[in-house]
């Protein structure tokens, strides 16, 4: 069986069974090569930790290619004109920018995620986590996803951006984000694209109106800070705010739910009153079942991987979920949960210039929410086996029903 056959046989991102447990397939991919051509998505799958980590830092790859090539020069078709609102929004955000524009915007936005800024948010994050978990406990349980995991990071990002609590659109932030992020799945359908376009228009219109308000009446929030920066266009400001919301809560939501289910099914728990133990456990939960299973990059100049030349114009799919369980890096216990794992260079937050800016905030939120759940609900238990959402790239449950 050659590498392409191995990929086709093992990798099936539209299969519910694969989404529920992709790890045996990853093991097969690691055993049969370093780069596997996968025809259904026309991508090279990269399953090994060493390669994923190196390619995240390799400037011969990029999240976009338009800073160097036209679509025709790169051998790609221009995006569908009907999807233009989504691409305008996405293409002006940090996630898909390269070169000087990425450097310029990241430098400006990184000021919102300094250690001091994140530490100043800590009391608010801990209070919100305690209140949300307290409500779940008082009600005797419920859906951990909608009751705790979703509201916490959305509230924190909304507070940072300066979205007023009484704005009715605040309740639409999560649905908008979910619809936009649907376009990051493999081979999204036309219906997914329509939802993403609609959400892109509505979210952009709301932020444009909020930016106008902040120009007239600035506050102590991120949008007020960004509108006063001459180096940012209005579109860059809008795209930055949308990315901060999407990236700032999708991973945290799914890590909370996936991680809590992992703890409950394994029957283990870190000490919620030991900050070091809690921090180490959170890193292991991020590694063991990462919410972002894949990160895609364009090949801007030919690269070679394990004797395979991957040409300019190709796309690589860096398999974070596989890299995070690679025995070559994590040893014979790579496939097991170890809440005390000290040496844990997981790639769940990426690496290189696209390393997650909000990683310190995500860690703060995760430590706060796991700490409160373990502290306030020591007898927490599942009332039903959760179902996975159909998405593979951003992987999480439909709900997590629990009793306290």
Please, could you describe this protein's structure?
It contains 17 helices and 10 strands. The protein has a single domain, classed as Cytochrome P450 (Cytochrome p450). Helix 9 packs antiparallel against helix 13, helix 11 crosses helix 13 and helix 13 packs parallel to helix 17 (359-376). The model has no long low-confidence stretch (mean pLDDT 93). The radius of gyration is 21 Å and the shape is globular. The protein is an alpha+beta fold.
List keywords for this structure.
single chain; 404 residues; alpha+beta; Cytochrome p450; five-stranded mixed sheet; three-stranded antiparallel sheet; 17 helices; 10 strands
Write the layout of secondary structure elements.
Blueprint: H1 3-10, H2 16-20, H3 23-32, E1 36-38, E2 43-46, H4 49-57, E3 61-62, H5 84-91, H6 99-109, H7 115-138, E4 141-143, H8 144-149, H9 151-161, H10 173-181, H11 190-216, H12 222-227, H13 234-266, H14 275-288, E5 294-299, E6 303-305, E7 308-310, E8 315-319, H15 320-323, H16 327-330, H17 359-376, E9 381-382, E10 401-403
Parallel strand pairs: 2-8
Antiparallel strand pairs: 1-2, 3-5, 4-10, 5-8, 6-7, 9-10
Summarize this entry quickly.
Helices cover 51% and strands 8% of the residues. By secondary structure, the protein is of the alpha+beta class.
Distance between the termini: 50 Å
Rg from C-alpha positions? Answer: 21 Å
Count of β-strands = 10
Amount of helix: 40-55%
Order of helices and strands: HHHEEHEHHHEHHHHHHHEEEEHHHEE
Residue runs with pLDDT of under 50 for 5 or more positions: none
Summed over residues and divided by their number, the pLDDT gives a mean of 93
- Total helical elements: 17
CATH topology: Cytochrome p450
**How many domains in all?**
1
Mind telling me the CATH class? Mainly Alpha
**What spatial order of strands do you see in the largest sheet?**
1-2-8-5-3
């Amino acid at each position: 069986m050659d590498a392409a056959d191995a990929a086709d046989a093992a990798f099936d991102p539209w299969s519910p069974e694969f989404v529920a447990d992709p790890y045996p397939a990853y093991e097969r991919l690691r055993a049969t090569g370093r780069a596997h051509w996968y025809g259904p998505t026309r991508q090279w799958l990269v399953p090994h930790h060493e390669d994923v980590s190196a390619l995240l830092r390799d400037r011969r790859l990029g999240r976009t290619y338009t800073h160097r090539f036209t679509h025709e020069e790169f051998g790609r078709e221009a995006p569908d004109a009907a999807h233009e609102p989504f691409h305008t929004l996405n293409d002006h955000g940090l996630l898909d920018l390269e070169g000087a524009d990425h450097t310029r915007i990241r430098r400006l936005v990184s000021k919102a995620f300094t250690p001091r800024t994140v530490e100043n948010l800590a009391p608010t994050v801990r209070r919100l986590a305690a209140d949300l978990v307290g409500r779940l406990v008082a009600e005797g349980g419920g859906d951990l996803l909608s009751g705790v995991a979703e509201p916490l990071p959305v509230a924190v990002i909304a507070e940072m951006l300066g979205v007023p609590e009484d704005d009715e659109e605040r309740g639409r932030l999560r649905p908008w984000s979910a619809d936009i992020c649907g376009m990051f799945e493999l081979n999204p359908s036309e219906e997914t694209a329509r939802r993403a376009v609609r959400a892109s228009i509505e979210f952009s219109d709301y932020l444009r109106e909020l930016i106008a308000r902040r120009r007239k009446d600035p506050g102590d929030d991120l949008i007020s800070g960004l509108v006063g920066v001459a180096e940012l266009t209005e579109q860059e400001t809008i795209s930055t705010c949308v990315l901060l919301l999407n990236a700032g809560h999708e991973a945290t939501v799914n890590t909370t739910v996936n991680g809590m289910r992992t703890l409950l099914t394994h029957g283990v728990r870190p000490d919620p009153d030991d900050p070091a133990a809690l921090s180490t456990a959170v890193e292991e939960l991020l590694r063991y079942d990462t919410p972002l299973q894949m990160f895609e990059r364009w090949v801007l100049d030919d690269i070679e991987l394990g004797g395979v030349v991957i040409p300019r114009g190709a796309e690589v799919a860096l398999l974070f979920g596989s890299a995070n369980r690679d025995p070559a890096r994590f040893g014979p216990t790579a496939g097991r949960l170890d809440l005390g794992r000290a040496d844990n260079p997981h790639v769940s937050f990426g690496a290189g210039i696209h390393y997650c800016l909000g990683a310190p905030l995500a860690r703060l939120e995760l430590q706060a929410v796991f700490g409160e759940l373990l502290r306030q609900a020591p007898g927490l238990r599942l009332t039903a086996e959760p179902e996975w959402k159909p998405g593979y790239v951003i992987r999480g449950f439909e709900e997590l029903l629990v009793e306290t």
